[in-house]
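Database export, one record per block. Field names are fixed; values are copied verbatim from the stored entry.
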Amino acid sequence: MLPEIIAALTPQDNEVFVDGTFGAGGYSRAIAQQADCKVFGIDRDPTAHENAKKLPEVVAGKISTLSGCFGDMQALLKEAGINKVDGITLDLGVSSMQLDQAERGFSFQEDGPLDMRMDGPNSDQRPPASHIVNTYEEKEIADILYKYGEEKKSRLIARAIVTDRIEKPFETTLQLAELIRRIIRQKPRKDGKNIHPATRSFQALRIFVNDELGELERGLEAAEQLLNPGGRMAIVSFHSLEDRIVKNFLRERSGGTPQGSRHSPTVEPAALRKAPFSLPTKKAIAPSEKECSENPRSRSAKLRVAIRTDAPCTKGEVA
């Protein structure tokens, strides 16, 4: 959704932008080419930084890459001497670059080590997916698959994993994918658009391994702190768990009713406080038919856009 992202961010000369999910650098390059502005690309994947060295905009100094998680963008930018920015974009989930590298362990289409760590196989920050399926209790595995993948057969899959790993621990992606295919029997669809039975389970493990939902919540809080009045935020999500977090955050921060418990204390009415964000449109923006036909992965994408007002941050400024 590159054209829609650029239209939302409207880059101007002398502005500063953050691409929190740098990947192959497509968004960062497009922003840098729109105006005489500065872009900071954040990524936890060492491969992304190695590939970035060859990009002309990086060589020219229009783009600078920062190694880390976008949830820590405020601290990362502060180290670079930046306290405020004019635009932030996030393209959530696994990147096409990571999916296409079988050795990273994200894909159930090709065999590779069951890893899924976005910061690389040498990460000392978190264990690989194989550690989860080989050591976690049956209930823990089932809960992960249900909570993060909304997999209805999570208990059956977890039971089969725990049974099979006694004879042979799970080491590869296809080993796990074939087990799930054995559990989830699918009838071929007439339109040919069958979803691989391992899709939800692999999504769940990837999200859990990389703490993606926690990262998103931290990133949204940081964006509120970092954006100048009039600053733009554009976020692309690909599944309901991510989009729900973004949608609820923007609803609350734009003056809507917070989503909470009926037992919670009464909160200050939205009408009595100035909201830190305004929404150009309350509905998510969908990809064009042309993009969906050219890039099937974009079919489930949702873009949400928000503009920072001059209201104080909800939780106060961070020193």
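Remark 1: Residues 145 and 204 are 5 Å apart (CA to CA).
Remark 2: The chain has a mean pLDDT of 88.
End of record.
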